[in-house]
């Protein structure tokens, strides 16, 4: 059996990768994807801890987080589409009409 | 009290929101104002429920719904906020071509999210409430669909907001890993018993602070604030600057008040919050100095005010914090209402230059705006002075003298940019032709009520302090 600590390490790696991608990538969809990866890293952590305590509530929380992520997709894609209609681009460098 | 009747205040709001979204489809474009009145009706009904609950009920659904006086006080503050926002939006929406009926529904949904946040002791429920609030807020920020700035505000708010909530979820996951519970009181017990913090619990708490730091716009997590505040429709900006901030601080109070007392070595977080508070006060006020747009000035001023409120969290002064938030509601919504008053069809006047000579051209608006700015700067006899005074004096009692010195210096800096608007209004010749649409009774009612609130809280704070003392009592357990 794979030790549980491996899963925690994996989820930490995923989370950090998500943060890095959020700052490095210059494209709204990819940035949004990296946020989703961070959420899923948290999900993996919840499941692992839940397994290690042999309690169920961690796994229930995961369902809530998945639902929240789905709601975020709905509103996020709508906003990104709105941006695309106005600017014909979803690059972050094109979104800079406010400064200061 | 029955378990299910305890849901009434929140349920009333959600029912109102759903009803408004349903009616939106059937109403003609000219009659969208009715939806605003329906919203106000439901808000008043929910407020009445809260008042009925004041001396009853405590904890429902195993602590996931707390209707203690603390939560009810925040309910009332938030309901009042949304009533004000609804009233100032009525004319604004049709003047600025934003009259989508779902606006009021989204406001009520955002309110229900905030109510869920402040009335729970369970991190999962708090997170869900925060998300309900955030989803509605993202949509509200982008409501001016044909305005590029509004869409930009929406995407910036959305990306950074969801980034922050990912931190919050991961923080909750780490705390769950350390304590195997998401209940705040269980977590505090853990910190009480454990003499050396596990690294996991520490990181979890830090991530949760980051998550809420974004919501309440604390430096260095404030990058989104000025752009979002500038781009969003002005009533929505007024809402963002008061509502989500109050909810975020309510949660921080629920976490940190027991934390200072119980945690064995809470110094690390004390230092972290100390640094955040100083940064917020100093950076917020300094950057505000070189802004030319009134909405951006008010955005940075609201960042700075978050810094002052953090001082109250550090000092453990709950009643001071609640008083500050109450005053802040009146003065900030008042200031934004004055900004909204200076608009006409399809045009808002937001540059500092536009304000030159306003004090003589529109004496009433100029005078009330001046009072709100004085209150934000903290001059007596306004509420803003007393609020700052209470917070800083209790911080001195706790021995946080350096922090108070920095805070007072920062608020001295703030006087400069608040007064600059006043100077433009009264001491400059009008350079631009500012003609406003002035038939807006609901807006002037809000201006008057905010003026009354700011002055009453400044001169006779006794009554409200009595209720605040009752409201913070449940936190002491």
Describe the structure.
The complex is a heterodimer of chains A (100) and B (477). With 100 residues, chain A is mainly α. Chain A has a single domain (4-92), classed as Helix Hairpins, CATH 1.10.287. Chain A is built from three helices and no strands. With 477 residues, chain B is mostly helical. Chain B is globular and about 65 Å long. Chain B contains 19 helices and four strands. Chain B has a domain at 266-477. The A-B interface holds A 8, 11, 15, 18, 22, 28, 31-32, 35, 38-39, 41-43, 45-46, 48-50, 52-53, 55, 57-58, 61, 64-65, 68, 71-72, 75-76, 79-80, 82-83, 86-87, 95, 97-98, 100 and B 124, 127-128, 131, 135, 138-139, 142, 145, 148-149, 151-156, 158-159, 162-163, 165-167, 169-170, 172-174, 176-177, 180, 182, 226-227, 230-231, 290-293, 296.
Summarize the structure.
The complex is a heterodimer of chains A (100) and B (477). Chain A has 100 residues and is mainly α.
Please bin the fraction of helical residues of chain B. Answer: over 70%
Q: Any idea what the radius of gyration of chain A is?
A: 17 Å
The main sheet of chain B orders its strands as 1-2
Give the DSSP E fraction of chain A (strand runs of 2 or more residues).
under 5%
Relevant terms:
heterodimer; A: mainly alpha; Helix Hairpins; elongated; B: 477 residues; two-stranded antiparallel sheet; 19 helices; globular
């Amino acid at each position: 059996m794979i030790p549980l600590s491996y899963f925690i390490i994996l989820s930490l790696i995923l989370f950090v990768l998500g943060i890095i991608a959020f700052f490095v990538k210059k494209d709204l969809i990819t940035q949004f994807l990296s946020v989703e990866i961070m959420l899923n890293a948290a999900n993996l952590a919840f499941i692992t801890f839940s397994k290690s305590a042999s309690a169920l509530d961690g796994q229930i929380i995961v369902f809530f987080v998945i639902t929240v992520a789905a709601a975020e997709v709905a509103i996020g894609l709508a906003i990104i589409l709105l941006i695309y209609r106005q600017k014909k681009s979803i690059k972050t460098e094109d979104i800079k009409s406010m400064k200061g | 009290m029955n378990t299910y009747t305890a849901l009434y205040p929140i349920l009333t709001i959600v029912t109102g929101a759903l009803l408004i979204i349903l009616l939106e489809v059937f109403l003609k474009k000219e009659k969208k104002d009715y939806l605003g009145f329906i919203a106000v009706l439901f808000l008043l009904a929910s407020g009445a429920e809260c008042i009925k609950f004041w001396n009853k009920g405590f904890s429902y659904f195993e602590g996931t719904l707390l209707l203690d006086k603390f939560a009810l006080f925040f309910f009332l503050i938030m309901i009042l906020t949304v009533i004000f926002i609804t009233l100032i939006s009525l004319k604004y929406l049709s003047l600025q071509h934003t009259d989508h009926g779902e606006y009021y529904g989204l406001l009520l949904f955002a309110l229900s999210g905030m109510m869920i946040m402040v009335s729970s002791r369970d991190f999962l429920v708090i997170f869900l409430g925060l998300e309900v609030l955030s989803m509605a807020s993202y949509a509200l920020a982008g409501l001016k669909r044909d305005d590029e700035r509004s869409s930009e505000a929406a995407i910036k708010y959305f990306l950074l907001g969801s980034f922050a909530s990912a931190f919050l979820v991961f923080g909750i996951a780490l705390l769950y890993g350390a304590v195997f519970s998401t209940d705040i009181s269980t977590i505090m017990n853990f910190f009480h018993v454990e003499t050396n913090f596990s690294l996991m619990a520490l990181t979890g708490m830090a991530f949760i602070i980051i998550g809420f730091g974004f919501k309440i716009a604390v430096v260095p997590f404030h990058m989104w604030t000025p752009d979002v505040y500038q781009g969003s429709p002005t009533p929505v900006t007024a809402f963002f600057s008061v509502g989500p901030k109050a909810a975020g601080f309510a949660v921080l109070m629920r976490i940190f008040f027991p934390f200072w007392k119980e945690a064995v070595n809470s110094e690390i977080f004390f230092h972290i919050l100390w640094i955040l508070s100083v940064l917020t006060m100093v950076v917020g006020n300094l950057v505000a100095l070189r802004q030319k747009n009134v909405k951006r000035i008010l955005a940075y001023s609201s960042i700075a005010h978050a810094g002052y409120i953090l001082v109250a969290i550090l000092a453990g002064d709950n009643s001071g914090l609640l008083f500050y938030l109450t005053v802040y509601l009146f003065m900030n919504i008042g200031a934004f209402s004055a900004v909204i008053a200076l608009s006409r069809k399809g045009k808002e006047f937001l540059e500092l230059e536009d304000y030159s000579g306003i004090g003589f051209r529109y004496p009433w608006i100029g005078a009330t705006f001046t009072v709100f700015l004085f209150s934000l700067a903290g001059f007596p006899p306004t509420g803003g002075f007393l609020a700052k005074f209470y917070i800083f004096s209790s911080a001195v009692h706790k021995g946080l003298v350096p922090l108070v010195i920095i805070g007072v210096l920062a608020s001295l800096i703030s006087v400069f940019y608040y007064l600059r608007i006043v100077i433009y209004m009264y001491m400059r010749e009008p350079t631009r032709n500012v003609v406003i649409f002035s038939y807006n009774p609901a807006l002037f009612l809000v201006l008057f009520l905010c003026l009354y609130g700011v002055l009453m809280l400044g001169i006779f704070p006794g009554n409200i302090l009595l209720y605040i003392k009752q409201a913070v009592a449940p936190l002491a357990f």
